[in-house]
Amino acid sequence: MSDDMRIPRNAENDHTDEMAKIRRDFIKEKTGAELEHTGQYSIDTAVLPGNVENFIGIVQMPVGIAGPVHIDGEHANGHFYVPMATTEGTLVASYSRGMRVINECGGVKTTVVEGWMQRAPAFIFDNARQARDFGIWVTENFDKIKAAAETTTSVGKLEHIQQWSVSKTKYLRFNYTTGDAAGQNMVGKATLIACEWIKANSPIPCFYMLSGNMDTDKKHSHLNMLHSRGKRVIAEIVLKKEVLASVMKVDTKMLAGATTLANTGAHMAGAAYNGPHSANGIASVYIATGQDEANVVESHAGMLSHQLLDNGDLYMSVTLPSLIVATFGGGTGLPTQKECLEIMGCVGKGKANKFAEIVAATVLAGDISLGCAVIAGHWVASHDKMGRNR
């Protein structure tokens, strides 16, 4: 590649307004793109190292506020306004409508069941018997492996190691708690040190790959549905028959029947989520609050459950077994993202479980709203009136 094609960089300090302009001018010369709006921003470029390379400016994303939503959680308790970054008209209005139903039914109960972050190395041997015996040794030496892993972090704690034998390979899945960080990089470093300790001390000679791809990083997997990745969080509510009829113009029996029908469709399609649209709420909240947007592919998976009660009310719940969220580290400390977290009282340490409960409640609100809109025939009409169809 010729030098005039290389993106300009400054080896000493690349995150400056000056370098951003130099790169914008470079892109304009090469492509003709003006980048007038991209180059207008209010943040200090000094906060960007560790979040982006070859910085040229800011993409301005519309942010709307949904809510309030009444949450009865162990960590999130009270009424919350939820920032949602989106370009999809009707989305914020739809979530707010679902939140109104939740409020008039007494609020949503939220529970964080457990939370892990994984790194899954693969150890390779000469034969299957060696791999089996190695697994026994790993179990017997867990405390020493844990001690080695935790030398790299004051926050991450190795809680357990899962094992699978395939051919002459032993797949291990290290499960950590990671405080208020999402923790992928944290557990990667910790597991590397643990694997080096294992390699040096194992009575059976071996070599390893740091990821055998069973950590399913930024990929959906059924393993996460069963064993959790990130937070396993549940949001549940009893929808009162009269409230649903008044606000949504839908009978609870109709919603129960439609949900059963949708369950079958999702099962046939092999969908990762059987409800209407968990990814919409998760993605918009993630973008607003500085989460790693690629984690939506894991986080949106889950189960919408329901039960029609004898009195005509409808129990409904959302279970998100791999909701990966952070309130500390990564993009959460950037100025606008931090402001959006502040709206929910979720900035900094000790707030990740609270944030997870708010996200789960938001997903449930969206599913209630869209599910009812499809039944009542408001789905297409609302997009014609408020969305991109107009």
Automatic annotation (TrEMBL):
Keywords, A to Z, come to:
Membrane, NADP, Oxidoreductase, Transmembrane, Transmembrane helix
E.C. numbers:
1.1.1.34
Q: Which InterPro entries match?
A: HMG_CoA_Rdtase (IPR002202), HMG_CoA_Rdtase_cat_sf (IPR023074), HMG_CoA_Rdtase_eu_arc (IPR004554), HMG_CoA_Rdtase_NAD(P)-bd_sf (IPR009023), HMG_CoA_Rdtase_sub-bd_dom_sf (IPR009029)
Give the enzyme's main class according to its UniProt record, as a single word. Answer: oxidoreductase
**Source organism superkingdom:** Bacteria
Residues crossing the lipid bilayer are 358-381
Q: What is this protein called?
A: hydroxymethylglutaryl-CoA reductase (NADPH)
Source organism of the structure: Glaciecola petra
